[in-house]
Amino acid sequence: MLKCDVLVIGAGPAGSSAAVAAATAGAHVILMERKTEVGSPVQCAEYIPFQIAHELQLGADIAAQRIDMMRTHLPDGEVIETPSKGIICHRDLFDRHLAGVAEKAGARLMTGTNATGFDGRAVTSINGGSQINISAKVIIGTDGPASIVRKWMGLPGNEMVRARQHLLPLAHRLDATEIFFSGEMPGGYGWVFPKGETANVGIGIDPRRGISSAGALEDFKQQLLDEGVIAGGNPLSATGGLIPVGGQSRLWQNNLLLAGDAAGHCHPVTGAGVPNAIFTGGLAGEAAASAALSGDRRVLADYEQSCRLFLGDTLAHAAAKRRFLEPFWDQDEDALSRALRKSWIAFEGYYEN
């Protein structure tokens, strides 16, 4: 039996940020990660806003390419350019950097360790075939869309978009992230996020539509080949996963907290999750340390209130825009494009009620 003040399950951006905050506050922290190597395999389009990259003082090795603009392609042919300063990062190195910061702050990182059960007092986990029980005063679930901590809290699964992505060679260098909307990718969109000579090319689709994400990605790649954007369709690497887009859930129960994707903190329209994961992970770590060290769990309720204060309206507005867009995926290109001008972040209509 291992004992700690705060157990963080999942060493992505939310988990590492939580571990940093809790350890810095003086708590004994264990950061558990089921993967044998933090950040691998990559399951992300790898864009990070410039402000986040600057605040975290990321090294040059983490940035693959700087981005200044997002270019949105509507089904009716309109293309709009929007300032969007950031970097396309090497996400595996980014995640490992954050986990390293957590370790320097005093957290104990346990990789290859998969949480399997919770009896109300201790978490059961498996590491290399061996069972490890960990007793923690507070447990933070930052374990992604299929969060086991979320299940322990009895919460239903979030609404999801299924994503697939290939790393492909570019026909020429790009200076912007490219977003493509189409009725062939309902509930999501296609993207091209450049990394120098290559790009992350992916699609997101509402799985309830019954459309094959693999087939949709192949169709999208063929479109990009025909348009001279990519130089070939054979992937240098491939990844995929689920993106929660239903909005924020309940975040606290007894000594359990949720943050990041596990809590539904992804933006319901764009699917972006890293900035909110870092922010809410930090808040969760601070609250968990305070509760663990003082013995007063009421501060955990304050964490949920803080998240709702800072993110609640933003996520609720995005979720409403997502619901508004839902019936237009089956309509013609003009109708879908008109709806997107009211529900995609590049247009002023998105910010109107």
Mean pLDDT level:
96
Helix content, binned percent: 25-40%
From the spread of the alpha carbons, the general shape counts as: globular
Characterize the main sheet.
8 strands, mixed
Strand content: 25-35%
> Gyration radius, to the nearest Å?
20 Å
The appropriate CATH architecture is: 3-Layer(bba) Sandwich
Kindly state the number of beta strands. Answer: 16
The CATH topology assignment is FAD/NAD(P)-binding domain
By oligomeric state, this entry counts as: single chain
What number of domains?
A: 1
Number of helices: 8
CATH class category = Alpha Beta
Which secondary-structure class do the elements indicate? alpha/beta
What are the low-pLDDT stretches, counting only 5+ consecutive residues below 50? none
CATH homologous superfamily annotation = FAD/NAD(P)-binding domain
- SSE string, helices as H and strands as E: EHEEHEEHEEEEHEEEEHEEEHHH
CA distance, first residue to last residue: 52 Å
